[in-house]
Design a protein that fits this description.
With about 325 residues, the chain is α/β, with parallel strands linked by helices. The protein contains nine helices and 13 strands. Helix 1 runs parallel beside helix 2 and helix 8 packs antiparallel against helix 9. The radius of gyration is 20 Å and the shape is globular.
Length: about 325
């Protein structure tokens, strides 16, 4: 049994993934297994990644389709499992492939979700583990993020949620406040917490999944923390087009608010978000594609939220 299961996702991003894998060979922590899910890439990612693994002496790997994972038994010499997903199910769906396997099989003590567009410091796993204190009801632990190119601070690894405006904001310096969520590009937790909190909600596809998952954990009584010692350098969605960012961020904040706030707060937010979209369109009359995406996201968000179950805010589930 490996102490830490590291989950990586790849979708048409083999160059980022290989650079991330290369950085993981330098960590000062030996007892981990990487579960790399390829989310049905349409390029030659799988071929390029396996070529790298064949050349590299650090990794001993197995490769298998997603449907074979449930019955998979890892040999002790294997430190990398490449899983071929049969569809692109986004951040939540891709991670849940491995999270469900971990829930069903006692293969690790700790679980680490890590973006493939990150480069890690050699001590980051040790520092994450040191920060996790079960006696303090720790849920998720994050770590400092720097921008890949400039090395300026991106976030301390966590953020706060504004439930009036449906905004999730990264924390840039430690203020002593307990964070509302841990940034999805690096989330460290235990298998025990995973068994209690459950899988990531999949209806978002992209963005807000980390906020939702963190909120679910907090409502079960867990506290989130960040480590200030290790770090990751993050390219921050290098392969995600800006219009997709606008669409999923706008749509998904509506779904989050429906799931995690009281009815009165949600309806006040709906008034706000409708007025916000109208304002954005008014000030961007010449940007046809932008405005169409904003309207589409608003409509889809309200429709999806109408079919979304409202959870009991602030209560254990």
């Amino acid at each position: 049994m490996s102490n830490v299961a590291i989950i990586l996702l790849n979708w048409n991003g083999y160059e980022d993934t290989i650079e991330c894998l290369e950085s993981l060979t330098g960590v000062n922590y030996d007892d981990f297994t990487i579960y790399l899910v390829d989310n049905n890439s349409s390029d030659d990612s799988v071929e390029r990644i396996t070529e790298y693994l064949d050349r590299d002496k650090f990794y001993e790997y197995d490769i298998l389709p997603r449907l074979n994972l449930a019955s998979y038994h890892k040999k002790t010499n294997i430190n990398m499992v490449l899983i071929l997903n049969d569809s692109n199910n986004g951040f939540a769906g891709g991670n849940n492939v491995v999270l469900k396997y971990i829930m069903d099989n006692d293969v690790c003590d700790y679980v680490l979700l890590l973006n493939n567009d990150t480069i890690v410091s050699e001590d980051f796993i040790t520092d994450l583990e040191d920060e996790f204190v079960e006696e303090e009801k720790t849920g998720f632990v994050g770590i400092t993020h720097y921008y890949y190119d400039t090395h300026e601070i991106q976030t301390i690894g966590s953020g706060l949620v504004d439930t009036k405006h449906g905004e999730a904001t990264a924390i840039l310096e430690d203020t002593g406040l307990e964070p509302d969520f841990i940034t999805g590009s690096c989330i460290f937790t235990t298998r025990d917490v995973l068994l209690d909190v459950g899988l990531i909600y999949e209806d978002y596809f992209l963005y807000w999944e980390d906020v939702d998952w963190s909120t679910t954990a907090k409502n079960k009584g867990y506290k989130h923390k960040t480590s200030s010692k290790g770090y990751v350098c993050h390219k921050e969605g290098a392969s995600i087009e800006s219009l997709n960012r606008i669409y999923y961020h706008t749509r998904n904040r509506i779904v989050y608010m429906k799931r995690h706030t009281k009815t009165s707060i949600y309806y006040h937010f709906l008034v706000y978000i409708i007025l916000y979209v109208i304002k954005e369109i008014t000030f961007n009359l010449g940007r046809t594609s932008h405005n169409k995406i904003m309207i589409k996201a608003l409509i889809h968000g309200i429709m999806k939220a109408s079919k979304t179950r409202q959870l009991k805010w602030g209560q254990k589930r």
